[in-house]
Design brief:
Pfam family, one: DUF3109
Strand content: 15-25%
Order of helices and strands: EEHHHHEEEEEEHHEEHHHH
Distance between the termini: 6 Å
Structural class: alpha+beta
Number of helices: 10
Radius of gyration: 18 Å
Number of domains: 2
Oligomer: single chain
Helix content: 25-40%
Protein name: DUF3109 family protein
InterPro entries: Rv0495c (IPR021458)
Strand order of the largest sheet: 1-2-10-9
Family: Belongs to the Rv0495c family.
């Protein structure tokens, strides 16, 4: 692979960090037990148009939420504005997302995703959660896609390496959800070209 690795590529109005293409990742729930939903100092980033969808799904997931989470939602709603001025899901105890629930093994799950998979809601979950470990950032008229590193996900990095699964392939479904099939096809073509040029393995 070339030593002068390019830092990013551009497709339409998106700028993609090369780490999203080169780094390996695959969630390992048995290892982390869903820790990403209950760690951190703020909730999950939420788009303005997702607030209504969160509120619409609330009656379905309400019975699965903890009493503490229900109290927080009753008091401040499903979202709040964090210290950076970003809209995020409400949290409990300063870290847990209010939409978390647990199974009999103590594994943490997203109640929104559970409702979606059971056919009880049409809303999967906030796009920021679905896209993790890719984070989106608006830069002028463009959207930047960056790979986010977090110690909580170290086992996901190991599993991704074992499977040789790049981040962008692990996140094919949410990337298509956000940017569309045509965009993802262009991304795959760009990756193929970068490999041929020696910028990617």
């Amino acid at each position: 692979m070339k030593n002068d690795r390019i830092p990013m590529i551009q497709i339409d109005d998106t700028i993609i960090s090369i780490d999203c293409l080169s780094e390996k990742f695959c969630c390992d729930l048995d290892a982390c037990k869903g820790e990403c939903c209950i760690e951190g100092d703020a909730g999950a980033p939420v788009e303005l148009d997702e607030v209504a969808e969160l509120e619409e799904a609330l009656p379905v997931v309400w019975p699965w939420l903890s009493a503490s989470a229900q109290a927080v939602i009753d008091r401040q709603g499903v979202v709040y504005t964090d210290e950076d001025g970003d809209l995020v899901t409400s949290i409990v105890n300063g870290k847990d997302c209010v939409f978390t629930c647990y199974d009999e093994r103590g594994y943490c799950y997203c109640a929104l995703e559970k409702a979606y998979r059971e056919g009880k809601s049409s809303f999967y979950k906030p796009l920021s959660c679905h896209l993790y470990p890719i984070r989106l950032k608006k830069i002028g008229d463009c959207v930047a896609l960056n790979y986010h590193r977090w110690d909580v996900c170290k086992m996901a990095v190991m599993k991704g390496g074992h499977l040789n699964l790049p981040v962008y392939r692990f996140l094919k479904e949410p990337l298509i959800r956000r940017f569309g099939e045509e965009w993802y096809t262009e991304l795959e073509s760009a990756v193929k070209e970068l490999k041929e040029q020696g910028y990617l393995e």
